[in-house]
């Protein structure tokens, strides 16, 4: 479990760096209203952020998810692997969906405050030049300051954990789709049905495919979560009030706003996250297995014949010495 956490942590850092600019654009589009429209679409948002806020404008608030998403990935892959023990056959689509849902539920309690900080920092200083932004007054001085002020104003439940219900509503179906989608891609496009036998470019495509599948089933919840977390404390009575008011003011299209940059973000983020996790797991688990094989081959030299003549049936360990390298398989 410790290794799964470490692999997921490294994979999370890699994926965050690759996809964060798209996430900033997604949040900006999700939270703007028709009455205060700043961007005319995804491309316009990219151009305006680059011109007005420089390249650093895309990475506002990244300190929180840089550690947070890495921590979240560590939790997800650890919990998902551990929860496989609840099923006799953990590699079926049903079992993968259930273990993914469990992992999504657990990590949401960590993810919610991290995304609250990320969203509020991403919305800070919109349209201000980087030099001007560095000198201008702004509400939050960083992730810790944002958490501290959120807690002092509204407490733990309504402040730091604001939007938890929408995070749960988003992440449970999202991860329930994520792992089966990866399994589907592997069994469809791998000649042997194993991830280890796929070329790297197919693993990257598979990571993008799983990310898009996960976001497709959960995206409307993410829109409401972003709007609710970015809003001032008394604009909405709760997440349901946020959903109703958003729908009445802007129609059903509000629930798809920012979906294009979100899917674009899913490609580099997940194309690096899962394959990096799989590569680390494959490399280090294989190395560990090779190390454990060496001691067992040296001992039989001192006890040559008693074991080989009486119980020759104990030769199945070769099958254990080469375990499945598929990251979705249990360890």
Automatic annotation (TrEMBL):
Gene Ontology molecular functions: transmembrane transporter activity
Chain positions covered by the region annotation Disordered: 290-331
Transmembrane segments: 58-80, 92-114, 159-181, 201-221
Solcar repeat start-end pairs: 6-86, 91-188, 198-283
Taxonomy, superkingdom: Eukaryota
Membrane topology label: Multi-pass membrane protein
Stretches with biased composition (Polar residues): 321-331
Coiled-coil intervals, chain numbering: none
Xref: PANTHER family: MITOCHONDRIAL BASIC AMINO ACIDS TRANSPORTER-RELATED (PTHR45624), SLC (SOLUTE CARRIER) HOMOLOG (PTHR45624:SF10)
Name of the protein this chain belongs to: Uncharacterized protein
Source organism per UniProt: Adineta ricciae (Rotifer)
């Amino acid at each position: 479990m410790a290794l799964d956490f470490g692999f997921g942590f490294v994979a999370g850092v890699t994926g965050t760096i690759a996809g964060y600019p798209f996430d900033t654009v997604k949040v900006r589009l999700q939270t703007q209203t028709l009455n205060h429209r700043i961007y005319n679409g995804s491309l316009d948002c990219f151009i305006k952020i680059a011109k007005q806020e420089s390249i650093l404008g895309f990475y506002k608030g990244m300190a929180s998810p840089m550690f947070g998403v890495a921590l979240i990935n560590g939790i997800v892959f650890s919990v998902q692997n551990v929860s496989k023990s609840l099923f006799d056959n953990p590699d079926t689509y049903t079992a993968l969906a259930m273990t993914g849902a469990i992992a999504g539920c657990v990590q949401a309690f960590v993810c919610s405050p991290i995304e609250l900080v990320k969203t509020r920092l991403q919305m800070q200083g919109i349209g201000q030049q980087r030099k001007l932004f560095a000198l201008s007054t702004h509400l939050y001085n960083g992730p810790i300051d944002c958490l501290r002020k959120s807690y002092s104003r509204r407490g733990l439940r309504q402040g730091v954990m604001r939007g938890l219900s929408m995070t749960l509503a988003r992440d449970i179906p999202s991860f329930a789709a994520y792992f089966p989608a990866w399994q589907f891609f592997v069994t469809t496009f791998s000649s042997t049905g194993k991830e280890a036998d796929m070329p790297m470019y197919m693993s990257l495509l598979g990571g993008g495919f799983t990310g898009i599948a996960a976001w497709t089933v959960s995206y409307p919840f993410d829109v409401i979560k972003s709007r609710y977390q970015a809003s001032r404390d008394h604009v909405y009575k709760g997440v349901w009030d946020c959903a109703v008011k958003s729908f009445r003011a802007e129609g059903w299209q509000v629930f798809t706003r920012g979906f294009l940059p979100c899917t674009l973000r899913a490609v580099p983020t997940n194309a690096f996250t899962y394959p990096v996790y799989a590569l680390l797991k494959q490399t280090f688990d294989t190395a560990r297995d090779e190390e454990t094989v060496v001691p067992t081959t040296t001992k039989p030299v001192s006890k040559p014949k008693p074991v080989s003549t009486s119980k020759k049936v104990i030769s199945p360990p070769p099958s254990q010495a080469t375990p499945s390298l598929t990251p979705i398989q249990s360890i």
